[in-house]
Amino acid sequence: MANHRGNKSNILSFEKKLEMVKEHFESNVPLKDLVVKYNISYSAARNACLNYQKKGPDALRNNTGRTFGWNSQKPFSSGQE
């Protein structure tokens, strides 16, 4: 899946990010090689690795567009139920 803003890099899924990070730490693959393999920017690869080190696998999840319950209430009714 590509960015809609014209950026030429990919948006990776959680599974792909986790695969990339594990490849970096377990197999000692340099970030430069991962950038080419996954078609992402160096900063995106580096940030994923740093976040994984600090916060674990959940830091790799994309929370864009998530709702946190503010609209989960029952819609207003017309008064007749």
Summarize the structure.
With 81 residues, the protein is an all-alpha fold.
Provide the fold topology:
Elements: H1 14-27, H2 31-38, H3 42-55
Helix pairs in contact: 1-3
Q: Characterize the biggest β-sheet.
A: none
How many helices? The count is 3
Fraction in helix: 40-55%
Order of helices and strands: HHH
Number of strands: 0
Mean pLDDT: 80
Compute the gyration radius: what is it? Answer: 18 Å
Distance between the termini: 44 Å
Give the helix/strand class: mainly alpha
The quaternary structure here is single chain
Residue runs with pLDDT of under 50 for 5 or more positions: none
What percent of residues are in strands? under 5%
Organism: Spiroplasma sabaudiense Ar-1343
InterPro entries: InsJ-like_HTH, Trp_repressor/repl_initiator
GO molecular function, one term: sequence-specific DNA binding
Protein name: Insertion element IS150 protein InsJ-like helix-turn-helix domain-containing protein
Features:
81 residues; 44% helix; mainly alpha
Describe this structure in words.
GO terms for molecular function: sequence-specific DNA binding. There is one protein chain. The protein is an all-alpha fold. It has a domain of 47 residues. The chain has 3 helices and no strands. Helix 1 crosses helix 3. It starts with 13 loop residues before the first helix and ends in a 26-residue tail after the last helix. The model has no long low-confidence stretch (mean pLDDT 80).
